[in-house]
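Lecture notes, unit on protein representations.

Consider one protein chain, 437 amino acids long.
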Amino acid sequence: MKEAPLKVAVVFEIFLPVVNGIVTSGVNLAENLRALGQEVIFLVPDTGEFREPSLGGVPVYRIPSLPSRSYPGMRYVLPWNRAVGEILTRERVQVLHITGPWFLTMAAVRAARNRGIPVVHTFHTMVHEADYLLYMVRFRRLVPLVRRLGWRFYGWYIARCAAHTAPSALACRVLARQFPHSRPRQISNGVEGALFRREVPSREEVRRRYPWFGEQTVLFVGRLGREKSLEVLIRAAGVLRGRPGLEGFRLVLVGQGPEGEGCRDLVKALGLEGVVHLPGYLPHGELLSSGLLHRARVFATASTTENQPMTVIEAICCGVPVVVPDVAGIRELVEENGLRVAPGDPRALAGALEALCTDQDLHSRASRAALAMARRFDGAAVARQMLELYRQVLRTERGASLAPERPGRYTSRYDGKNDGKNGQRRDDEDTDRSCNF
């Protein structure tokens, strides 16, 4: 017998016009759930900028909020906001899906539990990493203390969820280590494959629109923040400047953020104005239709704080070889479709970029492997996995048997022993792909 459609509320702590991996993957999930006949609503903080009543057919409920300095784009919402509960009741929401721990999420979780609505949590951001915590505290020596407090704060949410997911094996292990009863399941971020198979401008057309675009363009797309290690990318470009066979080499950093001015200053200081370009932010649709991503020679990131970055997945879906640091989490996305390099090493990164820019056989093999890998991230398949989890939670006495035995007394097992240098993840965290704890 066909099961009745569900109504799911997805909570975002950051929303449009800010675009990040959580927003992109969450919107894709909602679109594919709707294609499967389900109903979805969004709960988002009201920034005064996004005013549309819906997005792609999904109603958007904006909750009054105030600016927060804790992290760019984050907002304060009263944790006891009554409007959230009224929306859940009026919309007859059956499952609440949260995407990050902050105060709108706290209000939504409180309201859901008061109404017997089970909560599903996705662990998207490696919030324990030093580069993220330094947005909250300015002194690195305070990071261990803030990390311990942060895990305890996160534990409040973990204790009140019926099920947990994470897009990468690493994130599953991190969550299970801190909260042993959470039993996270790996469900990948999804993308809409058709968006990447569309006809795009030729390389010549891209060059006419963007004169700095060349045959050997290396692209980065993302927030220009300290956690992205952009200095490593820029210094790698400096290593490659003027090398024989790399006359067409360009590094293009698409995005905006607090480190944008610092990046421009570094480019100028190194004399790389003709090699490194920062065109600013491009809306997602414009980025995909422009041909910049599809026609890039390589997609590269130096970030060591990633979980399962959507920008890397999108490059893979375009058949673009990728270069990433060889650290737990992001290395799960690179097999034969690119190269992994020592983290924080501009010369190692430069060597990998040079290889993919000059070795056509290597580039062709990596491109074919990327297109083959793209099938793993099919948004419809991801939505089916998530829908089955929602139904499982509802079947299991509204999620009660999947929740921790003593809600409200859920604490982290963090002891500091699993940290790498300066709070960076250790490579040995990625020894096992299994994460169904």
